[in-house]
Give the backbone structure.
Amino acid sequence: MALLNIAPTKSSLLILRRQLVFAVEGYELLEQKRQILVFELAGSRARVRAAEIRASEAMGLAYAALRAAALDIGGAALDLAALGVGMDHHVTLTERHLMGLRLPHAQARIETPGAQFGLTGTTANVDAAMRRFVEVLPLLTEAAALKTAEARLSRELRKTQRRCNALSKILIPNYRQTIAFITAALEERERESFVILKLLRDRRAAGSPEL
């Protein structure tokens, strides 16, 4: 803690007291924000873990189907078959606002896979592999949006925590220490003035010349 560089006057004392009130109110608001962010971040991390598990499981099934298809027709034929796949998809990105933060929400819309391969040259495992990878896309989109939201929440929480620490451990204690110092200095001046006035009154009463 350190004293603020300000003159020890009554006007300075009034200014510091007002600033202290604002600082305390600001700290209380930031602390409320910090608690909300902590709660929200905990929920976000749980959602991210769940989404990553779903995407990982779906990806595992997709790669298993891909390996089965490659065993059926070979890797080169599978690559050629994949070149003929025509499928459209759209990603809708929206945002949720939380205390000034913009948290993304993404949703992938995939058209229903139709017949993409001919009757010859491929097997049912090729169709299954295509369907599996199509099913992965919305899950990956959801996981990516949740992960981005988690990163933003974490960054904002760190920033809010630093501000709370600066107020509670530096600024507010400095204000209070400076206020206490100025209050003591003003009280000392008042005591000195009172002693001087008392001496002057006593001298007048005794008929002595003034100082």
Remarks:
- The helical segments are 10-73, 75-83, 124-206.
- Residues 10-164 form a domain with the Helix Hairpins fold (CATH 1.10.287.3240).
